[in-house]
């Protein structure tokens, strides 16, 4: 499948109560620098919203503890089919390339699919940007300095409903 225009994806509102709850949680540890606190915020919002959207297809719990967000972006969620989707948040999405930390391909919570979520913290909306499978990621260029793979966005599938269909077929 080929990438389709992500602008067609709807912007999902982030409830103000969720925004305030997550903002409070992400700033509790005052020893963290503001950039790490911001990444904690993005990861938590992406997990909460992604989990809600995918909940019918998921096992009952996330498979990576929150504290890992200080080291690596993303959350691994396990489908009932035992496949894992890694949700990777960002506040800006480069329309040409995406980056996937090597952790999600070689660590203990290896992903089968990778889903990008764009979050606008000021306007309080989220957009499911697109997803890609592990095989395509492994065929992408690897940046050893950043320990990440660079994926061309034209390889993403923008219709997120396809991810649910793939999971149902795999069961």
Automatic annotation (TrEMBL):
Keywords: Plasmid. It comes from the Bacteria. InterPro entries: DUF1822. Pfam families: DUF1822. This is Uncharacterized protein. It comes from Leptolyngbya boryana NIES-2135.
